[in-house]
């Protein structure tokens, strides 16, 4: 136990240290939020994409992905769609804006003829801006 006997100087000494504990608490909370939110932002439809050597193009804020899986079934965003209902589902997803770009992802196992038929369905529905998605090399 210590006692200060000299009370002659009443000025308190200034403390120039920064308390970083609140800053660390905020950073840890943000880290947890991003760790929880990051897996939710990924696409959950498994597809084996081929590799592309094309230059990377900027992606829009909310891309519209149409996936043609290996079993030749379609998935619009995360919702399975039949080939016959695809034009109506695209109109609902885009708000009937035919100039919106559709990102078409196809499995490696899909035959070229089936991919062309999928593109023909898109063209007959009026969607002419189609981007093919592949993995970077």
Any idea what the shape is? rod-shaped
Estimate the mean pLDDT confidence.
84
Number of helices, where a helix is a run of at least 4 consecutive DSSP H or I residues = 3
Numbering strands along the chain, what is their spatial order in the largest sheet? 4-3-2-5-6
Structural class: alpha/beta
- Please give the number of β-strands: 7
End-to-end CA span:
69 Å
Main beta sheet: 5 strands, mixed
As a percent range, the share of helical residues equals 25-40%
Proportion of beta-strand residues:
15-25%
Radius of gyration computed on alpha carbons? 28 Å
Topology as a string of helices (H) and strands (E): HEEEEHEHEE
Please mark out the parts with pLDDT under 50 across 5 or more consecutive residues, or reply none: none
